[in-house]
Structure formats: C-alpha cells, structure tokens
Design goal:
2-enoyl-CoA Hydratase, Chain A, domain 1; six-stranded mixed β-sheet; three-stranded mixed β-sheet
Length: 256
C-alpha cells in the first residue's frame, strides 16, 4: 500500500520518468550476464552484489535480470541515494530474499540507500561507516521553481500572491510530510526503532529549506555506525577486522 501511494505521488507530480525502468543505456562496461551497464556488480564470490553510487532503475533491472537476485546472499552499500520508488522495490526484494546488507569501511549509506540497508535480514557495518537521513524530497527542481515564482516574485504585499504562495507551500510541505511519514514507517517495518523518526523530526528546521528543495524542512542527519546501533539500524558492528573481502571494496569518497 505504501509503495502504491508513493508511485502514484511520483507519477502525479511528473517526477518519475515513464522510461525509468525501460531500456538500459550507458557507456560503462556491461558485467557478464547483465543486460545493463552499471556501476554496481556481482563480486568474484558470485553471492555478493556491490552498489556504489546512484540507486536507480538500472540497479533494479540488473538484479531482476535472469533472477540474479536469487544468487545474491549479501549486498554491499556505498551510496548517497537515488530514486525513492526504486528503493522501495529493491528493499522488498532484499527482505523477501533474506539478504544480508553491509556498509564497509569508509563507506556511506545515505538517503534512500538507508532503506535498502534496513531491509537486510542481517545488517552489518564497519565502525567507520556513516548513515545519512533526510525527509522525502517531492518534485525536485520544478517544485523549487514554482515556489520561487509564487513566493519570491516580489509581490509580497499583494493578497492574491500571498494566498497563492500559502496554498502551494501547504500542499508541497504536506506531500513531503506524508511521504516522509510513510518512509520512516517502512524503516520500522524493517526493524528500526520508532525513536529514529521521533529524534529526526525533532531536529531544527533547515535555513532556506525551500530553495534547497527540502520540503520536509528538517536538516539532514548524519549518524555514525555506533549511533545507528542505538536506533536498531545496525545490528552488528565490525571493527578493524572486517570479515568481508576488502580487496573488492571501491570506496566512494565522502564530500567535505
């Protein structure tokens, strides 16, 4: 039900491309037995899948092709996020197939990446890993432009302009609130503590939230792996001796 509502919301706002799950194109070399070029790949152990970078339709296509998902036991995550609708689909696949998720040494899992991670039946993370959370952004650049047109037009003393700005802002913020409520509810379905949302939603409002597209208004929240344990996100912390094959790691640098 949550997935259907999110898909409907994305389509109604025109921010889910009609061909986002269609033909795969790109210049990255195609892994064996995959129909799509992708920056994630099946590891040399065959049962581990690496997602480094954007989570998008190609991620889903790759795991769906020839039932690749059936051959996966562990997913390594190192991503700043991507498409929220695709993330719901992938999270369901991960949980249904009883897959372990891990954020390795020096890696970060932020935005919708955290939904994939939370869906893991066994959730591991290196002590140096980081997790980033924020509210759902609805509408992207188009909504920001609409806000600027209605609310930054300079006609602040015009009653009609003020009314139009207020109506738009309430609708936009309301959509983001509903979508974020549903997202964090799904975190809880996958085992996260209710305190995760309670703590996050109580954080300060972000200055200039509208111009940044942050229609949930709350500032972004970065957790260490140790902090994530306290919210039932990480189940097992790994120290200096990571049990996974670090020779396969392709660490994505964290921006300053």
């Amino acid at each position: 039900m949550v997935l259907i509502r999110v898909m409907g919301l994305m389509l109604s706002l025109g921010i889910m491309s009609q061909n986002s799950m269609a033909d795969c194109t790109g210049s990255v070399s195609t892994p064996a037995a995959s129909p799509c070029p992708h920056h994630g790949k099946i590891s040399r152990q065959a049962e581990t899948f690496y997602i480094d970078g954007l989570i998008d339709g190609m991620t889903y296509d790759y795991l769906s092709y020839d039932r690749v998902i059936d051959k996966i036991q562990r997913i390594e995550l190192n991503s700043f996020g991507g498409d929220v609708t695709v993330a719901y689909w992938l999270a369901e696949m991960i949980r249904t197939h009883n897959i372990t998720t891990n954020v390795r040494q020096g890696a970060i899992c932020a935005s919708v990446c955290t939904l994939l991670y939370q869906a893991g039946v066994n959730r591991m993370a290196h002590i140096s890993a980081q997790f980033g959370y924020h509210g759902v952004r609805v509408g992207g650049v188009e909504m920001i432009r609409q806000y600027q047109k209605l609310c930054d037009s300079g006609a602040v003393d015009d009653a009609a302009a003020q009314s139009g700005c207020g109506q738009f802002t309430r609708k936009w913020v309301g959509l983001c609130q509903q979508s974020t409520d549903e997202l964090f509810q799904q975190y809880q379905v996958y085992g996260a503590s209710p305190r995760l949302y309670q703590t996050y939603s109580a954080l300060p409002e972000e200055t200039g939230w509208a111009k940044k597209g942050n229609c949930f208004k709350v500032v972004n929240w970065l957790l260490t792996a140790e902090e994530a344990v306290s919210y039932d996100i990480v189940q097992t912390l790994v120290g200096d001796q990571n049990p996974f094959d670090e020779s396969l790691a392709r660490v994505m640098p964290v921006p300053p």
